[in-house]
Fold this sequence. Notes:
By secondary structure, the chain is mainly β. It has 4 helices and 33 strands.
Amino acid sequence: MIGYQRIVLLFLASTILQPGTAPRAQAPAQKPAQTPAPKPNAPVPAAAVAGPQQTRHYPILVVAHGNEPSWSLRLGMKGPERLDRVGYPPLVLESADVARDDSGAVWTYRAKDSATGAAVSIKLTREPCSDGMSEDKYTFKVSVEHAQIGTLNGCGQSSPDKFPEFRKKNQLDPADTPDPATDKDKDKDKDKFSVLEPITKFALPAAVAYLDATEKVVVSRGAIRKTAAPAGSELALSHDGKKLLYTRSESKTGPERTIVLYDYDTGRSKDLVTGLVREAFWSPDDSRIAFLKNAEQKWEIWNFAVNEPEKAAVLYSGDIAALHGWASADTVLASDMQNAYWIGADGRPQQAVSLKLIYGDKFQVMSSDAIRVNPLNPDLLLVTAYYKATPPGAPVDAMGLNSAFFLYEVKAKRQVILCPTDIWARSAEWSRDGLQIYFSQLGPKATIATNRIFWDGTGVKRYLTGSGLTIGK
């Protein structure tokens, strides 16, 4: 009986996978019905106009891909499911409908980006296709049009074995056959499949620094933790995890601060610069340090070689509200209250993007916000900001505000809110592998913990007790 079911299901699947065909059934011959003669002078109906042949069958279980940029697309049993691009989290697609042209060889699928609502159109043309990177030949020529990302061109092939929901439906096993008497609830969920595959290849941080529950500055490498200072803020751990920068306040009421360098191996600290200074960051190779210094009633960007703090010099003399770190080996990212700036080694802005464009209409701009560049993709930003209007049911801080984090693609101008609405989050930071985000979460009785989430919005998990986490390696 099981073998018969397999044969029937595979036959049905094959009819779906062959667009423009429909199963034919033998019908018994019937005598033509007699048509009464028209009455005298009665109008004779016009012959029906034959329209294009229509069918509900269309290609499914197709995997498409393209190059420059590299991308892939899954067309599941109900249509477009997911779009993947190298360097970005996957896009979940909500399928709308599909139409076939008169030739019967072209299908257009309409869907939307579930995160942004942007329109997506996928065009499949049944014709031989080559991706230009190999000698493989594919069945379909594929074009993806995303309202924000643009056009992606490539090839596609029917690949049922790559769709777990299809395998489960067609590779029947006695243990998978529901018992109507006992498995009613299971049967309700049999069609529920996640299009996001679990992220398993990621690297947990090997060296971090943070503020513990008593506000002490702690550096942790492996299982060994050391207290670097009784208090501090604006932590920045070097990429090798051996040296920590932090800001020490010289007065509870005054503005004087000192940027301090702590050496994990020796346990010693050294004052680098003192005055109206803040927000120090390591360059990607740990050879230079950039920071903000107030001069002539404005915050400027200064920098120096790590062993020569006495030679600190101004890099950018514009009035800056926040420094966000290094975007590359010779570029720092900063912002005022209107724009984000990518500032080169010559002190000139290489690029400027409006914060209104980045923040959208849901978030408000503050100087305490954090913008972090993905370590593997400079086009992908992680932004921590406060909502203008707190989402219903979301937790708030002492100011009555909810803080969250979101992703922003500079080229596509695509914003994706990643933080769950039931979380108050601050100080979101990338892991070094670019797949994880660590953030400070406000808990009951104003307690602060650091949690982790993957860049696709899955895998929220508690990481440690403390806040202001910075990751070295």
